[in-house]
Every structure is written in structure tokens, then in C-alpha cells.
Amino acid sequence: MALQLQRRGITRVHPLEGGLEQWVTLSFPVRELSASEIPVLASTQSPSGHTMSA
Amino acid sequence: MDTAQWLGQYSVVILPALVVAEQIGIPLPAVPALLAVGALAANGHASVPLAIGAIVVVALPVDLLWYELGRRRGASVLSNLCRLTLEPDSCVRRTENLFLRYGAKAMLVSKFIPGLTTVMPPLSGIFAVSRLKFACYEVIGVILWAGFWAGLGYVFSDAIELVARRAAGLGRALGLVVAGALAAYIVFKYVRRRLFLRRLRIARITPEALKGKLDAGEDVLILDLRTPLDVIAAPYVIPGSRWITTDALDAHASKIPHDQDVVVYCT
């Protein structure tokens, strides 16, 4: 994704070290998403133990 | 005994071995072998149903194993599998997007798309697709994929025989050119990725530094680049961030100022 942004001329891209997981581990504030903001899956199942990093 | 005769005689062993190699992430040429078996079958030197049956018998347990790993260990299996590919980020996203769009039915076509055949079974496990449904889609998917390529070989057996004869005439030189081009491609992709990751490492921002900027009221553009699956699993964001999916990135890119620092984060 960062590469995609750079290809579009957005060069001042700074990836957050450790991602959201590290942010939460440090007990920094987060905003809970409302039900309307959460994406809905086509499939009825929900993923299990999803902690994937991209 | 030449290669064609050898392939015809041992197709029930060679083809499943090539398919298993692909299932564990080793890119071996299963499609050319299927085309060749189809062409041999047209001349009565091999049996397509027997070859496809052998592939199903071997492929199903291997994919069931990946499925169980996905079911028990979650998304970490998928991330680890995608690390084996040349473009891990797009591997994860491409597979997730395909599954989000089509559900378990994506398995019917996943064998036709390089790389997906390895990651689709653990993804089915992660999504807790039922075992019976998984097995049915797996078997149908294998029959469709193997049947298509072997059938193509059967129909165009004359053309394939001609190409094989020409390639054999060129001998070792052709093999070296193809192997060299493949090796150069892999090295190019690998080096480009390493250079890019190095640049990104240099540009990284720590959570503490970002928190400091937010506390100081600095105008920071923060983009949440998680996949929909990741957002569902962790339905919260860093305050002030905007969630953008890969599909929507093109539409939003023009609105992102080029002279501003942009902080991006994933899971």
C-alpha cells in the first residue's frame, strides 16, 4: 500500500512502527467504530483469531 | 525412453507430485505437464480421468491439512504462507479480497490463479467454512482446473506435439534461456522489494512520536490501511485516522496532499 501511494506521487509516507497492535499495547487512545462504519462480509462466517499484518 | 513416454507412463505419480509442490508453495510446472498428459491421452498414451483422479486423491488431504491449520491457528498461517511469495502484501490482500467477494466459491477458480492455490485452504479454515463444504469445493475445483488444462491438451494435441518437437530441437539452449529469464525476474523482484522496505524502514514513525504530534495538535494525516477483515476483527481506529481500502485508494489518492507527511498503519 505504501508503494501504491508512492507511485501516485505521495512520497512523504511514514509507516507506523508496530502498527495498530503496538499502539494498543502502549495503551494509547483508540476510537471505537460504530456499527455503520464496520464493513459487512458477503460470507456469513467471521474470521477466527485474525491478527494478520499486511 | 523420451520425456513424453516417461510422462505418459508415470503421469499418476508425476502430476500429483507437481500439484503437491504447488500446494506447499513451490512453483513447479503442473500446467505444462497437464497439457502434455492431455495431448498424450489423445494419442492413447495416457488416461486423463486416471491422472485427474490421482491428483484429487493426493491434493485433498494436503489442502485439508492447510484448512485445519487455518482453522486452529488463525490468520498467522496465512501471513506466514504469504511471506514465501515475492509480494507478500498483495498476496494477503488479493486472497482476502477474493474471499470477501465470492466466499468459499472462490475455491472453484483459485487453482487457476498462481499463488492462490496455496493460501485459499487456510483462509477457508480461518473463515470456519464447514469441512464438508470445503471438501466439495476442493474436489470440484481440482477437477475443473486439471480437467480444463488436460482437456485443452487433448483438443490441441497436434499443436502441443509440434511445439514440444520444436522445443526439443532447440535443446539445452532454450532451457537455459527460460531458466535465466525466470531467475532474472525473481532476483529483480526480490531486490526491488528489499530496496523499498529499506526506504520504508528509514521513514518509519514510532507510536510515541505520533502520539506526541497528536497531543501537540499538529495536523497529521493518518491513513488506516487495514483490510475489511482486519477492521472487523479489531473494530477501532487511531483517533483522527481515515480508513481506506486498496480498492478505494485510487479514488482517494488525488485528495491526499503531496507536501504533507502521511502516517500509514496496518494491523
TL;DR?
The complex is a heterodimer of chains A (54) and B (267). Chain A contains two helices and two strands.
Explain this structure to me?
The complex is a heterodimer of chains A (54) and B (267). The radius of gyration of chain A is 15 Å and the shape is flat. Chain A has helices at 2-7, 19-25; strands at 13-15, 31-32. Chain A contains two helices and two strands. Chain A starts with a helix and ends in a 22-residue tail after the last strand. In chain A, 28% of the residues are buried. With 54 residues, chain A is an alpha+beta fold. Chain B is mainly α and 267 residues long. Chain B has helices at 3-23, 30-42, 48-73, 76-83, 88-102, 107-110, 116-126, 131-155, 157-170, 172-203, 207-215, 228-233, 246-253; strands at residues 221-224, 236-237, 242-243, 262-265. Chain B has a three-stranded parallel beta sheet, with no helix packed on it. The model of chain B has no long low-confidence stretch (mean pLDDT 80). Classes of the chains: A alpha+beta (54), B mainly alpha (267).
- H-E string of chain A: HEHE
- Greatest contact between two chains: A-B, 45 and 63 residues
Helix/strand-derived category of chain B reads mainly alpha
The number of helical elements of chain B comes to 13
Which quaternary structure do these chains form?
heterodimer
**Widest β-sheet, arrangement of strands of chain B:** 3-1-4
Unreliable stretches of chain B, pLDDT < 50, 5 or more residues?
Answer: none
Instruction: Look at the helices and sheets of chain A and give the structural class.
Output: alpha+beta
Low-confidence stretches of chain A are 43-54
Distance between the first and last residues' Cα of chain B: 55 Å
Described by strand count, sense and barrel closure, the largest sheet of chain A is:
none
Q: What is the approximate shape of chain B?
A: elongated
Radius of gyration of chain B: 23 Å
How many DSSP H or I helices of chain A?
2
Q: Give the N-to-C terminal Cα separation of chain A.
A: 9 Å
Please give the largest β-sheet of chain B. 3 strands, parallel
Average pLDDT of chain A, rounded to a whole number, is 72
How many strands of chain A?
A: 2
Please report which band the strand proportion of chain A falls in: under 5%, 5-15%, 15-25%, 25-35%, 35-45% or over 45%. Answer: 5-15%
